[in-house]
Amino acid sequence: MTAMFVNLPVTDLERAKAFYTAVGFTINPLFTDHNAACVVVEEDHSFFMLLVREYFQTFTNRPIGDPSAAVSVSTAVFLDSRDAVDASVASGIAVGGSEAQPASDYGFMYQRQLTDPDGNILEFGYMDPAAAEQGPEAFMNQQA
């Protein structure tokens, strides 16, 4: 089985857990303690590990950047509809997240960028199934 874990440094683990559950994810309590929380993005496949900064530092000798000052990664999560994208972003804003730029609408793809309270960037998106399967040109040809 292939699974992806994205490790994110956080300053307040409880605040981060509240944010990530508000945008629609769940916490796996089996892999959650005072240092870390396992956020289930897609069961058995995709996860965030929210790590308090001190614990995150044990994984590397390099300094940990401050995501609120300098962007080093943006994680995109695609959902089943534009409405789901809008709902996730609205829920994230309600619990302390922010949206620094307007939505991007490419016709075949819709994206909104949400920044968590620590400055980590999530991009929520929706892609038309025809475009996802056959590429954007197929979607554009359907519209003609």
Helix content: 25-40%
Low-confidence stretches: none
Per DSSP, the total helix count is: 5
Tell me the total number of β-strands.
Answer: 8
Set down the secondary structure blueprint.
Blueprint: E1 4-10, H1 13-22, E2 26-28, E3 36-42, E4 46-52, H2 53-57, E5 74-78, H3 82-94, E6 104-105, E7 109-115, E8 121-127, H4 129-134, H5 136-143
Parallel strand pairs: 1-4, 5-8
Antiparallel strand pairs: 2-3, 3-4, 6-7, 7-8
Describe the structure.
By secondary structure, the chain is an alpha/beta fold. Helix content is 29%, strand content 31%. It has five helices and eight strands, in the order βαβββαβαβββαα. It has helices spanning 13-22, 53-57, 82-94, 129-134, 136-143, and strands spanning 4-10, 26-28, 36-42, 46-52, 74-78, 104-105, 109-115, 121-127. The strands form two sheets. It has a four-stranded mixed β-sheet. A four-stranded mixed β-sheet has the order 5-8-7-6. A hairpin with a 7-residue loop joins β2 and β3. It is elongated. The protein starts with a strand and ends with a helix.
In short:
The chain has 144 residues and is α/β, with parallel strands linked by helices. 29% of the residues lie in helices and 31% in strands.
List keywords for this structure.
5 helices; four-stranded mixed sheet; 144 residues; elongated; alpha/beta
